[in-house]
Each structure stands twice: as structure tokens, then as C-alpha cells.
Design goal:
The protein is mostly helical. Helices cover about 65% and strands about 0% of the residues. It is built from four helices and no strands. Helix 3 runs antiparallel to helix 4.
């Protein structure tokens, strides 16, 4: 079976994995070491201040 073959009975939609990057990053930040979390959020804010602020707000609401 090559990469383009799919098991019988499975459609492409059934094989797809849903990805919610924001939720995955939020989960990672929840369990991260405080220093690592702050470092990551500061570096992220330098590139995307709104995203970093949104992540911080969601972390505070947990």
C-alpha cells in the first residue's frame, strides 16, 4: 500500500485529524513551567501581540 492508498471503507474525511492550534498551544502553556510559559508568551508577543494577549487572557480564565 502506498501513501495514496486508503483502507477500504474509510473516506478522506474519516482519515483527517482535526487540528486546533490555539487550543493545543493553550493546553501546552497550561502545563508548562512558569519561566518557559512567560518566555514563550513574550517572544510570541513580539511577533503577534494580539495572539499573545488572547492566550494570556484564556490562561487567566482557567
Amino acid at each position: 500500500m502506498n501513501k495514496t492508498d486508503k483502507p477500504e471503507g474509510q473516506s478522506n474525511a474519516e482519515k483527517q485529524v482535526k487540528v486546533d492550534g490555539f487550543a493545543q498551544v493553550l493546553e501546552m502553556l497550561k502545563i508548562a513551567d512558569t519561566d518557559f510559559r512567560e518566555s514563550l508568551l513574550k517572544r510570541l508577543a513580539a511577533k503577534d501581540r494580539e495572539l499573545a494577549a488572547s492566550l494570556r487572557a484564556d490562561l487567566e480564565n482557567l
